[in-house]
Amino acid sequence: MPMRKFQYIDRAPALRPVAAQASCCMPSSPCLKCSMIRLTSPRFAMFSKQFGRLPEENDELFFDGTLSHPVRATRNEIRTQVLEASEAYGLNCFSLLNFLGLSSPSIHGERAL
Question: Domain limits of the chain?
Answer without folding.
Answer: 31-99
